[in-house]
Amino acid sequence: MSRLERIWYRGGVGAIPLLPISWLFRLVVTTRRWLYRHGWLTVHRFAAPLIVVGNITVGGTGKTPFVIWLVNFLCQNGYKPGVVSRGYGGSATVWPQQVSPESDPALVGDEAVLLASRCLCPMVVAPDRCSAVTALLDSGGCDIVVADDGLQHYAMGRDIEVVIIDGERRFGNEQLLPAGPLREPVARLNGVDLCIVNGEAATAGEYSMRVTQSSLYNLHRPLERQAVSHFSGQTVHAIAGIGNPEKFFDLLRNAGVEVIAHPFADHHIYCAEELLFNDDLPVVMTEKDAVKCSQFEGANLWVVAIEMSPEPRLEAQLLRLLHNVTANN
Q: Pick from 169, 101, 100, 94: which is nearest to 127 by CA?
């Protein structure tokens, strides 16, 4: 945990010098949203309903696993979803970019390739989310769009807003950046359609989401699955270049695995040498890391895949929201 994160989530006086900047940031955020809501800045509407999945804090909250669940849920209920995202970390010089499971994560971003691999539906990425949505719909085959992240991308008109909350860290000291972890005030949640808490019991007005299944596979043999407890009682090197690496390390520890933790920055681009630890211990990584390590050699590289699902009552509420949206379009 960085020094700034300790201030955000463990408290202390370290946030005090940052408060004036935080108050200025709040003013900018609030003013910008007001301008979009009152028509001073343009909101683009699209020919298909759009669901945006985001958060109001920096760092990982579990958006990607929820998007994977949501796409599957939409398919099971007769929709033809497509996904758009920013393509964070991608180095492409031309946008938008169509994404497939075979795309280069260095060009389109690691999360984009992971989503394309897991969702198996059309996907487009671009820093300008509106152009990504337009390109996705122009390509045909979609009747609903899921935006991975982009809650604060107000130029992108949306029909349903879903916010994912980290159940352990929640909102920290409830200050906006840089004094706290918030992108927007907590009061922003009053205007969203669904608040989903990742990992802990939900409070009033929230829904919970938990890991329902996790499996382990060798990086070079993805079809051979086994339980994460395969390494129970053993020591492994665990690498994680995600927003909240400790959540991944804790998942392994809860399965009885002894973890030598190697946290990296979110979206870290690995080189093969970073996975060499001068021993024969297994190296275990997240699926998001795996898309960037697939070309690395080594028989002892392992990947943890997780499935997350929200509580059943959310499904009914989501179907009601979808019915209302499609009835009004």
A: 94
Query: For the chain, where are the alpha helices, taking DSSP H only?
Result: 3-10, 19-37, 63-76, 105-108, 110-119, 129-138, 245-254, 287-293, 312-328
Beta carbons of 109 and 97 less than 8 angstroms apart = no
C-alpha–C-alpha distance, residues 175 and 186, integer Å:
9
DSSP codes, 178-198: TTSSBSS-GGGGGG-SEEEEE
Q: Coil, helix or strand for 217?
A: strand
Indicate whether 328 pLDDT > 80: no
User: What's CA 160's distance to the chain center, in Å?
Assistant: 17
| Alpha-carbon gap, residue 117 to 101, rounded angstroms | 5
pLDDT in tens, 283-300: 999 999 999 999 899 889
In angstroms, rounded to a whole number, what is the distance separating the alpha carbons of residues 3 and 197? 25
Q: Render pLDDT for 49-98 as a digit per residue (tens, 0 to 9).
A: 999 999 999 988 889 999 999 999 999 999 999 999 999 989 999 999 99
State the Cα–Cα distance between residues 252 and 109, nearest whole angstrom: 25
Q: Is 82 exposed, middle or buried (0-12, 13-18, 19+ CB in 10 A)?
A: buried
